[in-house]
## 1
Amino acid sequence: MTTAIPWNSFPGPWHGRLHPKSGIRNPKSLAAFSLIEVTLAIMVVTIGILSVMTLFGTGLEQSARSTDQTYAILFAEEVMSGMRARADQGWTNLSANTVLPPIFSDVWLPAPPDIRATGLIRTNLFYRQDYPGVLQASYRYRLRVTTNEADTVKGITLEIWNSHFGAVSISNALIYYTEVFNTMN
């Protein structure tokens, strides 16, 4: 009659388990990581670090875009408020030839040029007083005033392109529009 011999009674490798009689671990189970495992771990860590580093560049780019857009919004709000004020002073003061005084003239040096509603694309460069010679912001803009046939409503359209370089098209413009109603009649 044959009896089964338990696996742990053989003198071979014990694959990380304790030897049944001596209580010593298999020496092969104490071995360090293989070269392939170390290489793969370094590759995974490198990919993770590179991914995080690309996020920094994207974050800085988004921050710059957000700052430019904030300046453009402030510029647009000042222009639209000035145009509404002109309309409040008199309906005929608001036309395609309207000229607004420089905006932010107390903050920017040199004082930016007048804002003109000629329908042509114009450029304003803004240098901060506290950073002489450093261009803080630049915009190209087109300001148009249109009137309906009954001369009761005037539409004011302001298109702004951040930066004074690059292509000018409607697809990359920030467009602001408001209507002013003739309350004088």
Note: The chain is about 30% helix and 25% strand.
## 2
Amino acid sequence: MRSVHAGAPLDTKERPYVSNYITTSKYTAWNFLFLNLFEQFRRLANFYFLIISILQVIPGLSPTGRFTTLAPLCIVIAVTMLKEAFEDIVSFPVKLHVSRKDCAFYVFHVFCFALYGMITETTQR
């Protein structure tokens, strides 16, 4: 827990604090594939077709072709992944613009003004 005392300077050189950076994007470059596949197969229809595709790959179990369900499922998943990536990339500048706006907030009977993540002025109201 971080304690900040009013009027005391912050000595961040002695004890560096953890950043309070907030991200509003759904994916990063590192977790896009795994999170997106998890989100895709949480949908009941996609999960159902995955199970059917796995069963159809077994030679003695399916009277139809091996990849008749797997190919359309892969196409649907790929198109949805591209759409999600496009939406996440396009929404980034909009979210960045909104997060850099001035804001006012009220904390413990003190009205504060903040500009891009830092308190610039406090007034008693």
Note: The longest strand covers residues 118-124.
